[in-house]
Amino acid sequence: MSGSDWQICAQTHDRLGESILWHPTEQALYWIDFYGPFVHRRKQAKGPVETWKIDAGKAIGSLVFADKGRLLLALDNGLYLFDPATGKTTAFADPKKGRTDLGFNDGKIDRAGRYWIGTYDVPEVSPNAIFYRVAADGTATVADDGFVVCNGPSFSPDNRKLYFSDSYGRRILSYDLGQDGTLSGKRTFIQFGPDDGLPDGLTVDSAGNIWCALYAGSKVVCLDPQGTIKLSLPLPTAHVTSLCFGGPGLKTLHVTTGWGAGTTEETKAQDIGGSVFMRPVDIPGLPEPIITLS
Fold first, then answer.
1. Is 131 inside a domain boundary?
2. How many structural domains is the chain composed of?
3. What is the pTM for the complete model shown?
């Protein structure tokens, strides 16, 4: 694969595109702009992009798929259900219990239907961030803590490993994931260097390879289950944030990005950052789970 394999899938000029997922039944691509806060959806490969402005919070960290066609959104001030059919947003839970020094960030559903959601220290200075496991009724359990920014959770094909981006630690962590949702055996899966950027969004393909977006690193890397880099794919913009597999056979890699350091509202139309990129891959991904809520 070469750099020319990337194509722009959608040009939404997102200040910080994030949390891209392919809906397995709708056959639609969803993603967000953190600072909009916006939710985007594209139902056809070259169809129009639908966008919803979310007014329940000031920022949106991630989305996951819930039953009845709903989305579960992680806003800065809590977790909310959003129905694209009606545009209605409903409060669901707030594991951080109103703390204003933390905001909700990246989240995913594991293959047993449990919701995992991380937070970030709002000044991005202190290791106050908490990683939660949230049940279908909104009850939250602390899974791990002591981070500046929690990112990326993703899961092995057999759901026995959880991968987690400790972004400011420049490392991906690996945990053993028990059938009851408990984590054990915490270890460093890979440590990145200062020139690599910060590990952000993660996804896992059907062969168990781990794919990582490197923020400020201008690239995506693919690692085997032992933590060895198999592939490094440069992108033409620095702020690479999240990634997923979608399209026919789940054989297209989609990647979100954000603006460049000097971009403004006036200059964003000239910046390739904020685009959604795509490229073909040899190994397909896995269908994204959907949480059934109580």
1. yes
2. 1
3. 0.96
